[in-house]
Each structure stands twice: as C-alpha cells, then as structure tokens.
Design goal:
Layout lengths: L3 E7 L3 E7 L5 E8 L11 E2 L1 H19 L6 E8 L4 E4 L9 E2 L7 H11 L1 H8 L9 H11 L1 H6 L2 E4 H10 L3 E2 L1 H4 L5 E2 L4 E2 L1 H7 L8 E2 L5 E4 L2 H7 L6 E7 H9 L7 E5 L3 E7 L13 E3 L6 E7 L3 H11 L7 H13 L9 E3 L17 E3 L7 H25 L6 E5 L6 H11 L2 E4 L5 H13 L6 H5 L16 H24 L1
Parallel strand pairs: 1-5, 5-14, 9-12, 15-21, 21-22
Antiparallel strand pairs: 1-2, 2-3, 4-7, 6-8, 10-11, 13-14, 15-16, 16-18, 17-18, 19-20
Helix pairs in contact: 1-6, 2-4, 4-8, 10-15, 11-12, 11-13, 12-13, 13-14
Amino acid sequence: MSRYLMGLDAGTTSFKGAIYDEQGVLVAVHQLDYTLLTPQADWVEYPAEAYWNHFCELTRSLLEKSGVTARDIEALAISSQGETLVCLDEAGEPLGNAIVWLDNRAASEADALRQAFGRRALYEHTGQADMLATWPAAKILWLRENQPARFARVKRFLLLEDWLLYRLTGRFVGEPNLWASSALINIHTGQWWPEMLKEVGLSPDRLPELLPCGAPAGRLLPAACRESGLHEGTLAVMGALDQTCNTIGAGITLPGSVCETTGSCLAVSATLPEFVPWQENAFITCQNHAVPGRYTALLWSQSAGMVFKWFAKGFYPEFEGNLDAAFDRMNRDAAQVPAGCEGLLMLPHLSGASNPEFDPHARGVFFGATLQHSRAHFTRSIMEAVAFMLRRNAEQLTAMGASFDRMYCMGGASKSPLWLSIKASVTGCAMLPLRVSESACLGAARLAGVGAGWYADIDRAADALLNTGGEFLPDPALKPLYDRCFERYIALYEALKPVFAGA
C-alpha cells in the first residue's frame, strides 16, 4: 500500500494544500482564495466557520485531483498564518468572527501593555520587538475592555491552526512556534507567561495545551472526516508558523542562512543558535524556532504581495480577476519603466507598518506623481517599495551582527525575475530563488512525517531539500540611484508620520 503525507497552508488570503508520496514527490496541489472582511476602519475579520469550510473544500478537492485514497494519507500538518484569534464558547462554537492578524483595533490596549511591562521585558520573555495591536494579548485585552460580555463567554482562545486541529481531533492544542507572537508565551520555557496572562485577565485553562512542533495531535474524528473527505486513520500533527514551514520546506533549518519571503506580507528570517540579547535601539524580533533550543530572527512587514494583488484587482480590470494573467502583464509593464519610476515613490503600508516602524496608523501612499506617469509606473513603484522594505529589514539583521551577501527567496514574488533583480540592486545582496514547489505545504508535510515517524527529527526531515533556481546579482550601476530612492522612501515616511498619527 502506498503512503502519503498532506501539508496544508492556512494563509492570510488563501488556503493551499499538497500531497506528497514516500519519496517526497509532489502528487497534487490545490488552492482556494478568499477575501477578508473589513467591517470598519482598522478591523479585519473572517468567520471562523468559513475557515473550516475552506479547509474541507480544499481537502476534498485535493484528494479528487490527486486520485489518492483518503485512507492512504498517513499524516497531515498545518502551516498557519500567525496571530489570527478565534474565540470559542463552552460548547466549542465560535463567538463572533475570527479577528485576523491584520486587525489594528487594539492599538490603545497595546500601548497600555507596553506601559505595563516595558519593551525590554516584553522582548526578553517573548522575543517580540514591541507590543503591537497585532498580538493576541492586545486583542484579548480589547475584548475584555470593549466587549466584556463576549469576553466572559469565551471558554477557549485559539489561533487558526488550533481551531482547525480542534475541528479535526476534538483537542484544544497549540504549538509554541505559532504562539510566539501572541505575547502570551515565554518562548524560552515554552509555557504561558503568568504575568501577561494576569494583566489581560486570563487563566491558562482558557488557552490550548502546548505541544512541540511535529508532535502527534491525534487521529481524526468521524464527523471531521465526513466533512473533509479525510480518513479516521490519518494522524493530525502539530505544524508551525507559515514562515517557519517555508524554511523547513526549503531545507533551511540550520543556523547561518537568511531567507526572505514575499507572499501576502514580507518576512525576513535568519536561523540562530542562541537568543539575541536585548539592544535598546534595535527593533528585532527573535523568537523560538520549531527546532527546540534554536531561535529565529524574524522581521516582517504587513503588506507586500497583497499590495500587488490589490493593485491587480483594482487597476487591471481587463483581466476580470484572473490574477495570474494580471501579474504577467504587470511584470511586463513594470519592465518598461526605468529604475526609480521617474520619481514616483510608494509607501506600501495599506494595513499599518511593522518592522521597523511599528506604526499601526501608517497608510499607503503614492508620492511624486506627474502627468508623465502611467499605470506601469505605479506597478513598478509597488515592486520597488517592497524592495525598500526588504532593505530596511536586512539592515536590521546587519546591525545585530549578522553578515551575509545573499538571500534565499520564497513566496509568489520569487517567480518574478524582474522583482528579484530589483531586490538585488536595492539591497546589494544576491537573490537566490528557491525552486521548491509549495515550500509552506512541503514544510508542513515534513512536520507531519516527523509526527508519523517517517523522520527522526525536523533537521532530518528538511535534509537535502535545498534547491535554488539561479542567482540574481545586484547591478552596481543602479546603486547610486536606488540609494537616493531609499533615502526618499525613509524621509517620506518620517515626514508623514505625524499626519498618520493625527488621521
């Protein structure tokens, strides 16, 4: 009998799944897109039940496309977006919509928690550079202060992976890699941080049991199998944060490598053998890795690829939602525009800014537009803006002592030679796109294999997966131009910061 692993990626605007055989060969992949709800300013939500329905539709479609029998799926695991909060009542039913990680309603609560603990204590316990409205701790405090009746009815606070695992297995379980950015966990002990729980009004029994990444969570419930098309004999295994799964799937788990992922958001990560000590003026996130005892310097910016997608939907209407065709045209358009976009500059902060600005009030801006600028200029300006964000994050890693002249590239933008070339020239680093198919899904599948006993540990699961597709080098002739553009990018944000704060 053939055996298979399934890896599922619960992303911010899409769910994706893949099935792999015993040799690690991709058998089938399927994706479902969805649109988030924005009921009012700074609110971003999505129905928790809809997440589960998407999951079930995805697994059924994946099985049908692959031709694999459900009973032959030995194990599955989930790569998940971080911070999206699901509230359940006593009966395990969702209380209102999930609060998506992009949601910034809890800005004042984040300020209060920062005042209560200070940035240093927050960093030394959780590895987070600052207290943000993004973190579940702030969102839970917001619920307590603004919706006390709902807060009182919540029996369990879960993240998205936990919610899907609960529907699959009936267990309330989570893992410390995904919960690292909740500001509720001590990343060094892998246990809840008592002082923070007290501050937001929680007891540990309102949170899931924490299990290691790659640990078995349980067999699937009959009800879950009826809805998802999966089999009761399949083992659900603890996954990890999507960025971590990306690196596992790419074969990069050992210290020393720097990766950038331009998907919906931008993430830059470096695997480290030890925790980076507190530095007063360095806004660095350094959180626990999926591999015990190891850490990840993780820098991220909230809106990157999603800005490109937003522009495609709104400003390339002739493609009627065919995003692949729109992206192809956008790349061809941008290639006709000279570097620097003839003075057009963008701030891509459509959902606030994180590293290194940490400004939930920041907004998207196009600056310097003139009558000579076309739609193509605006398209390229988005690509250059994301490259400037990448440079800011890379400079943070350099400031903490990291030395590198290349980055491994993942995410949808790694398929664009033009975007890779822009990033190389803006940052001065070679860009090496990883030619692994569906790295987040593959990383999750490899974690499933650890839980099922296929691999002895996470490092062995990731071994021999690294495979790059060429190298994109900086163009020295563009350095002076892009240095000036980068300086303007920073100056534009600094000039508008008071305006954002007063909006």
